[in-house]
Amino acid sequence: MAKLNINGKILDLDVEDDTPLLWVIREHAGLTGTKYGCGIAQCGACTVHLDGVATRSCVLPVSAVTAEQKIVTIEGLGAAGPHPVQEAWAELDVAQCGYCQAGMIMAASALLAQNPRPSEGDIRAEITNICRCGTYPRVLAGVKRAAERMAANRG
């Protein structure tokens, strides 16, 4: 049994302790925006926020997460309206096939929460998600656009 705070809701879920958080989110909480990509924490399709930190959920056992920790999925990121990263992604048509993009958006939004004015080097160092379609130049532009929008909103 696991008690988790996912997108601001406390859920009691009947799962084995060694179940990866990804599968708990997808199969037990019914939130399918977080994707399975590689299963070894390399591609980033499974990225969620755990207390604000971009976390690869495919290798994190649910037993390593407490009820006090806040898990945010792609569904929770835009729950109160589109996040600036989501807006930038739509404006710039960042996604091609889109499979990896939820993880990319989660990694980018975590980066901007920690570093609101990242350099290109910062972005390249922190956004290590893999995109089969090669949208990396658009991802870079999207992160920069979101950072600009967030700076303008802080005024």
Shape, principal axes of CA atoms: globular
Oligomer status: single chain
- Kindly name the structural category: alpha+beta
The tally of strands reads 5
Structural Rg? 15 Å
Low-confidence stretches: none
Sequence of strands across the biggest β-sheet? 2-1-5-3-4
What is the H/E string? EEHEEEHHHHH
Give the overall average pLDDT.
96
Describe the largest sheet: 5 strands, mixed
Number of helices: 6
| Share in helix | 25-40%
How much β-strand is present in the residues? 5-15%
Distance between the termini: 45 Å
Write a structural description.
With 155 residues, this protein is α+β, with helices and mostly antiparallel strands. 39% of the residues lie in helices and 14% in strands. The chain contains 6 helices and 5 strands. It has helices spanning 21-28, 74-77, 84-91, 101-114, 120-126, 136-154, and strands spanning 2-6, 9-13, 47-50, 53-56, 70-72. A 5-stranded mixed beta sheet has the order 2-1-5-3-4, sandwiched between helices. Helix 4 (101-114) crosses helix 6.
Pick out its properties:
single chain, 155 residues, alpha+beta, five-stranded mixed sheet, 6 helices, 5 strands
Structure described in brief:
By secondary structure, this protein is of the alpha+beta class. The chain has helices spanning 21-28, 74-77, 84-91, 101-114, 120-126, 136-154; strands spanning 2-6, 9-13, 47-50, 53-56, 70-72.
Q: How are the secondary structure elements laid out?
A:
Elements: E1 2-6, E2 9-13, H1 21-28, E3 47-50, E4 53-56, E5 70-72, H2 74-77, H3 84-91, H4 101-114, H5 120-126, H6 136-154
Parallel strand pairs: 1-5
Antiparallel strand pairs: 1-2, 3-4, 3-5
